[in-house]
């Protein structure tokens, strides 16, 4: 347990990080001298680190990045959710990595297209519960975890999850309730352009496919039916 002085120091660190991020954002407006974007990204990262440190010290829920080999565009990755009573699969288009793209064209993806794209199949094993829908990225700053390390467009894990605690309380009335099982669960958060996906599960893994979305969805359905 941290002392009051230590908590105050963390609060001061977060306040200073916020001011640095604001100054870095202002510096992006005039004619650039070089290094402005690098400083802005570094300032944002420092603020996120400070947010997580303070929330952890106060035993509050906070978000940390999950190291998965997949990112998605800020546009429309078209996430699809398929699940049964213990498995969940999240399928979406991954970020384009064309080094020759100059920003002058847009690659339109249709979910029913037979063309092959790179798609992520994220499997959540030992799935207990899922949510998919609001908020979108335009109102992510209204989410209760915003300001506590939350980032969009990348996989996140929620530490000190209130959702897991709530589910555990509900299930604690069962005759076969086993507290150790709930300690194995993690709360995952995926923020997309139009929707947010959240899941409580034992583990997560990713497979990448170069295929059409209908083909990948059919393969995932086969896995669910085994």
TrEMBL record:
Report the domain of life of the source organism.
Bacteria
Q: Write down what this protein is called.
A: Uncharacterized protein
Source organism per entry reads: Massilia aquatica
């Amino acid at each position: 347990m941290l002392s009051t002085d230590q908590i105050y120091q963390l609060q001061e660190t977060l306040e200073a990080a916020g001011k640095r991020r604001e100054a870095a954002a202002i510096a992006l407006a005039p004619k650039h001298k070089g290094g402005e974007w690098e400083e802005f990204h570094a300032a944002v990262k420092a603020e996120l680190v400070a947010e997580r440190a303070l929330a952890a010290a106060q035993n509050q829920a906070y978000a940390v990045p999950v190291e998965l080999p997949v990112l998605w565009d800020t546009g429309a990755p078209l996430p699809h959710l398929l699940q049964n009573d213990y498995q969940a699969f999240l399928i979406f288009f991954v970020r384009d990595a064309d080094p020759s793209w100059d920003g002058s064209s847009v690659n339109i993806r249709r979910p029913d297209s037979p063309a092959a794209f790179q798609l992520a199949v994220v499997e959540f094993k030992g799935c207990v519960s899922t949510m998919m829908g609001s908020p979108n990225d335009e109102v992510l700053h209204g989410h209760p975890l915003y300001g506590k390390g939350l980032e969009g467009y990348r996989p996140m894990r929620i530490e000190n999850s209130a959702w897991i605690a709530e589910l555990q309380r509900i299930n604690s009335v069962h005759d076969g309730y086993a507290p150790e099982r709930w300690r194995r669960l993690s709360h995952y958060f995926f923020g997309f352009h139009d929707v947010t996906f959240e899941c409580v599960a034992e583990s997560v893994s990713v497979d990448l496919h170069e295929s059409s979305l209908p083909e990948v969805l059919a393969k995932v359905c086969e896995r669910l039916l085994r």
